[in-house]
Design brief:
The chain is built from nine helices and no strands. It has 253 residues and is mostly helical. Helix 3 crosses helix 7.
């Protein structure tokens, strides 16, 4: 769910975008995701209210939504007051420079770079609230469509197993699942996701079909997670290979 943003920023930067602009593009996408999830989260909590008997799962949901809202508020605060973000990054840079004993010229260059990129990031994000409102609206529609298709996978699997699709309940369960997955407890949420899916869908499916729950969880993770890993590995290999070739060409006399 999270963790690949630095690589995406790097790739956009290699493709010609400034670091601030690339960061705004990647963070902007995550911001729209966050808004979408926050809109549906109250509905999901209302639907599952008093139906989740698993205490660790309920605690995970509470902690997840708390962290989710906290980081969103911090981001919005930094967006409104970029000078605070700039001071924070300059403070971190000063501490690192002291440890590595950078020269004053290097330090001045880094300070200038940080200030320039923070200003670029802020102006790029503000674009979506001004001239880019139409773009923001189109991306929001595409985001809803994306999550709608993604959330339909579970219902299709339930139908394939001969069960009811439970479209509304399944959508709500996956909104709650997203909130839990955002906590960086394990790589890819491995273990946490499987337990969470089991807990949420055991409420939906019911105890009479509990024997199919394990099969459902296995297929769900295979399609929504492991297939992404396989596809990502192929593209990652191609990316590393192309970067290696580019580096070798640059080093040729």
């Amino acid at each position: 769910m999270a963790g690949g943003e630095p690589l995406r920023i790097y790739l956009l930067n290699k493709d010609g975008m400034g670091v601030g602009e690339a960061t705004a593009a990647v963070v902007g996408e995550r911001l729209i995701d966050a808004i979408c999830i926050l809109i549906f989260a109250p509905f999901a909590f209302f639907l599952f209210n008093n139906r989740i008997q698993n205490q660790p799962l309920a605690t995970g949901l509470l902690v997840g939504i708390s962290f989710f809202i906290l980081f969103l508020l911090i981001f919005l605060y930094a967006l409104k007051y970029p000078i605070v973000l700039k001071k924070f990054l300059l403070f971190i840079n000063a501490k690192i420079s002291r440890l590595k004993k950078h020269k004053s010229e290097q330090q001045a260059s880094k300070v200038s770079l940080i200030e320039r990129e923070i200003d670029s990031f802020h102006s790029s994000m503000m674009f979506f609230w001004g001239p880019g409102k139409r773009t923001f609206f189109i991306v929001s529609v595409l985001t809803v469509a994306y999550w709608g298709v993604s959330f339909s996978i579970a219902s299709m699997l339930l139908m394939g197993l001969g069960l009811q699709p439970f479209f509304i309940e399944s959508f709500a369960a996956q909104v709650l699942l997203l909130i839990i997955v955002m906590l960086p407890t394990t790589p890819g949420g491995s273990g946490v996701v499987e337990l969470s899916v089991s807990g949420l869908y055991s409420v939906i499916i019911g105890s009479s079909f509990g024997y199919l729950l394990g099969v459902f969880v296995l297929l769900f993770r295979l399609i929504t997670y492991h297939m992404n890993l396989i596809t990502g590995a192929v593209f990652q290999f191609r990316l590393v290979h192309s970067l290696t070739i580019s580096t070798e060409e640059l080093m040729k006399p």
